[in-house]
Amino acid sequence: MELFDTATVLTRVMTSGVVMSIEKSDRELPGLERLLTKQTGRAKAVLLNSRSAALHAALAGQGIGYGDEISRPGLGRKDLAFLAWLGVTVREDGPAAFDHLAVDAENAGLLGESARQSTAPALVVDLTGLGFGPAAAVLTDDPAVWARAERLKIFGAYDLRTMWTQEEESPDLVPGVQFNYRLSPLVAACVRMALSQAARPHPTPGATK
Amino acid sequence: MITDFPAKPLPLPDDDDVDAELSAFGGSAIISKEHRRTVFPVITKEDVFNLMLAQRSTPERVVAEFAETYRDYVGARHALPTASGTSSLHLALVGAGVQPGDEVIVPAFTFIATAQAVVAAHAVPVFVDIDPRTYCMSPQAAAAAVTERTRAIMPVHVHGLPADVPALRALADKHGIALVEDASHAHSAKIGDQVAGSFGDAAGQSLMADKNFPLGGEGGIAFFATEESYRRAADYVERHGIDYGMSWVAAAFGTSQLARLPYYDEVRARNAALLGEALEGTGLFHAPYVPEGHVHAYNMYRITLRPDAVDLGDLPVHAVKEAVHELLVAEGVPAREWQNTPIPCHLPFQYRTGFGNGYPFSLNPGAVRDHRPEDFPVTLGMLDSTLVLCRELRAPVEYERALRYADAFEKVARRPDAIRKLVADNEYRRPYEKAARLG
Q1: Contact criterion met (CB < 8 Å) for A10 and B208
Q2: Please, which residues 78-137 of chain B have a Cβ atom closer than 8 Å to chain A?
Q3: ipTM of this complex prediction, to 2 decimal places
Q4: Model confidence, pTM
Q5: B55 at the A interface (CB within 8 A)?
Q6: pLDDT of B3-45, one tens digit each?
């Protein structure tokens, strides 16, 4: 994305005054969620603040945790180390527990096509390569995966906007370990514009990537 | 409007408003609905400009420059910028030498992230009660909880008031264990001239955008007293493939915010003093206690109710608090409970599934307790008898708004008859009898 476009997006969000993920009036995070579900053809998106957070959410969303074994061929050293830290053993054979895409400025326009080839119950999309800092998402068609992954990232809460005051209606979905894996609305806004531009069939003049 | 600029200015205070009928009983509210929005954080031209400039730098440099500037401000030896307060606490514990299965003593009253960071470090949180005046970890309770497997004590500078660091430091030294601060509420808080985050062997601190010192959305920072601790934490994330890095967008926003932090600190202290003086005049309400030599950062402002001062001593204090809460909210004061039960009574510490199959609690079954709220009587007493203001004292809260809040407390305190009626008409439950809430 051009520096001018990044500057415009950041200025727009800062002018709105809403830079916090738990702000009721935040529009940036829901906007990115909508774009990602549309581009990937999945029903639900969970936004997260890093690739390893998304791996964690993809597994926790399926109820996979310490002491469990999954199938996932071809993981790199870093991902394997993280899964070992979670206490999850990885087998090379069998259908993958999750698929994984790393998006950057070069391949961002191919996200939809790549996502269509994925068949795993959770799709991890690493958005860090777009250049706005660590960012990622988990895409899924399974509402239970989404519900558990959301709760992992915001301390057992299921809705950023009411996380302070809500009462849990589904105690069985509350994860035992909980993190703050929330994504900044400023970062989300930049990612959204980069993905929108990449998906356009005819780039606007001046937008070189 | 596409900006957060207030739609309408607040009317100036009028002495007659305090004696008018309560809003909950049909009168006018001290702060009308259209004036209730509190803008936070303050975002200036400089913040915008700084983010533009940051685009011309490298992400690594933007984040490193922010971390170094803030480390210097706090006076800590080493700093590791992170994506959140929770991750900073996790790394502070790791840096301090906490190993899987170790026990870490934490207060029962805090935000749940304090205890979850212990679980993230594959260790077991051991919960202790708080001091009845400061609401921070009780050093006596902590001393009673130390075992051979205790590796660290993690006090929280709750609401922005530094915990009793000298007593806790002595306790840690006596047992040869680490003192790790949770400074997530305590930006610019001090004991003497020393800033929170620099007291312990390590510290973690949230920098999310709702804190007194906000970054661009989400962020945190871990501080370490030694190179060895810093290195241990940095190696840990590398070895385990954990992405805890801070975005340059968040960091660039923080660099310009940091330059204005002393200004905002002064405004908050001024507002706290103004409100405190007004509360002490009401009889019913009392300002937070601040020990001599401590500087409270007032990320939150916890107000204590004393019903006997307005002849309501015969009523249960929690019921008086609930009634007062309703009356204040109706007047336009967004008071909150901010926690309604001890943290060990939240579901994750009742079920203790952890990362799955009970890990890491399974490493140290002897440290695990099935807690009930009554195990923490001081915490329960505080939850029964206090209410909290959050953003309401922070810049850019105008002078006239601070005065209006003071008026609202005065107006409610003058009506014990209304409080008594609400208590009679409602069956108020104690806070912990409701489902556990984060805020």
Answers
A1: no
A2: 83-87, 112-113, 116, 119-120
A3: 0.96
A4: 0.97
A5: yes
A6: 888 888 888 889 999 999 999 999 999 999 999 888 899 999 9
